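Consortium newsletter contribution from the modelling node. Members have asked for a concrete example of what our holo predictions look like. Here is one, prepared for the cytidine-5'-triphosphate complex that several groups have been discussing at recent meetings.
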Amino acid sequence: MKKIALGICSSISIYKACEIIRSFQKENCEVRVIMTANAARLISPRLFSALTGRRVIVGLFEDEIPDEITHVELAREISLLLVAPATANMIGKFASGIADDFLSTFHLAAKCPILIAPAMNEAMYLHKQTQSNIKKLREMGIRFVEPEKGYLACKDEGWGRLAPVGKIVNMSLQLLRKSQSFVGKTFLITAGPTREYSDPVRYLSNPSSGKMGYELAGEALQRGAEVILVSGPTHIIPPPGARVKWVQTAEEMEREVGRHFPKADVLIMAAAVADYKFSTVSSQKIKKQKKSQTIHLVQTLDILQKFGKKKGKRILVGFAAETERIKENALKKAIQKNLDMIVANDIKKKGSGFGSDYNQVTLVFPDGKSIRSSKRTKSEISAMIIDVIEEKIGKGS
Ligand code: CTP
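And here is the predicted structure:
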């Protein structure tokens, strides 16, 4: 039995929440209702308690919360957070990270997929601020069931009517299924740069931020996978739930990948691994001596190529950072490294790639087929990549 948290805000369409609850129950899902204080003034929480057989959560304080359940405990139990109806106010709070009631606090603690069904007056829905909040949340991976045009409570015709219950429930069930698609699967994902030291204070590296690999890890986690994230040094926070293994050099990354590879179903090498390292590493700081200095570099081991040879039934995904003949170079790498897919990106393009929140990629397959994305957030790109992996796993490849 799946548990769904249903967030209910104060909109006239609040009565439709009863039908949403009933539909979930017919699908054998347990519903835990969270109401905002204003919603509880419109309809008594007792109605929803009667429907769900559980007390409704309204306030943030102990005496207001049934069974003394905390937002963190509830976040662990549920597989989907649906907010229906969602007001402009709650969407604004989610978009800004405000946490001043149970629902907005719970949103920050929830690791499961989130679906929002807005309902409000047309002017509020089409207001630039609301649209910008929705865009921001979409870019963070939150899904929306668009409201429809129709007769509104304010006696106007317009956009802002809560989407039909059937549509909301169907999308919720789809997300619920997705949240289970990788249960029992282990994803091994590398991210960030590596550092190759010449002495204790100097190293060779690159500007990889780790964002792409971390987004992929978050997406796989949301779909139920166990995720081992082998990360080079970054300044960003790993997604909650990932088992993070910190490394610095290509050699350490290879060792860590090797340790977890046997139990991995999927290996995604999103890390920007240094191709060269210093032929010798001084244990002491190298002193400034000559006017010019020649350094001698040797190749690091190609981690992906090594594990490509031991692929077995695993799905292997690589990245290709290119500056020219993008697809052609990526295809060569996919074949050479025995990959199922390579994600190619043009690192010369402004505003995407290294360090950016955006990316524009071409997914290249070893048979020469490819899929090109538009410029999208790394969160959206990661969902696109993981969708392809999900399809491959579904087909049993
Ligand atoms: N890779 C790796 N080990 C290395 C170098 C790269 O596992 N020592 C992986 C990267 O994580 C990436 C893929 O191989 O998934 C391609 O990396 P890229 O740097 O684009 O290509 P290279 O094979 O290093 O070729 P080149 O630098 O000549 O383009």
